[in-house]
UniProtKB/TrEMBL annotation:
Residues 69-82 have a biased composition (Basic and acidic residues). Residues 1-26, 61-82 are annotated as: Disordered. Residues 1-20 have a biased composition (Polar residues). It comes from Streptomyces hebeiensis. This is Uncharacterized protein.
């Protein structure tokens, strides 16, 4: 898969630039350093919006990040059904060179829609904890499920994914979409220098629309 590495992609859920801060408390300065536009749900969504994480290279170059919409998710092993938060996270991934060229500082990994699918899948897993698992088993479960998410992202044209057309900046855009018992994940490449992914639960993906965020500071709680 021409995508970010597993270690790099995992920074979507544990970013070195954000430390241990909880969702909604990410420094907006991290987002402002990006050279690409951030995306979120369009103006039809009127609920809460909040910052999540950014992923950056060793030299501080921002490569991807996520914005949240709805109720901030948390890991609650006893939650199920209507008790679980209703949210959508939108993942923006900067387009990278398809041949993985070196930029003079090191090798740049290529990015594709699969990159966005992997980051979205990992993000959903990060806020999922099956009620039947105890704390001691969660790490093994997470590792196993993360490997499975990576393999699924590498097969966007496979039977695990269906097609979905959703507006991006008002234009119909093709997305790959899949559902699981934990929520849903989608990914596509609308252009404009980015690939998009999204994941969520409790909010139907079929009615979503995405647009470039005019001012990412509007997502900061202290804006």
């Amino acid at each position: 898969m021409e995508t970010t590495s597993r270690a790099g992609a995992h920074s979507a859920t544990t970013s070195p630039t954000t430390g241990g801060a909880q969702p909604g408390r990410r420094p907006v300065a991290d987002y402002l350093r990006a050279s690409f536009p951030w995306y979120g749900l369009d103006e039809a969504f009127t609920g809460p919006r909040w910052l999540m994480q950014v992923g950056a290279t060793a030299d501080g170059t921002v490569r991807h990040g996520a914005t949240g919409h709805g109720e901030e998710p948390s890991i609650r092993p006893d939650a199920s059904g209507d008790d679980r938060e209703r949210f959508t996270a939108v993942v923006t991934v900067a387009e990278g060179p398809e041949d993985g060229d070196c930029d003079g500082r090191g090798r740049l990994d290529a990015t594709t829609a699969a990159s966005a699918a992997w980051l979205a899948g990992a993000g959903l897993l990060a806020v999922t904890w099956p009620a039947q698992l105890d704390h001691a088993l969660r790490d093994d479960w997470l590792k196993q499920q993360t490997e499975a998410a990576f393999e699924l992202a590498d097969q966007l044209d496979g039977p695990a994914w269906s097609s979905l057309s959703l507006p991006v900046d008002g234009k119909p855009t093709h997305f790959h979409y899949r559902e699981s018992e934990f929520g849903w994940v989608l990914a596509g490449s609308p252009g404009n220098g980015v690939h998009l992914g999204a994941y969520g639960r409790g909010m139907s993906a079929y009615g979503l629309a995405f647009s470039a965020i005019a001012d990412i500071r509007s997502y900061a709680h202290d804006a």
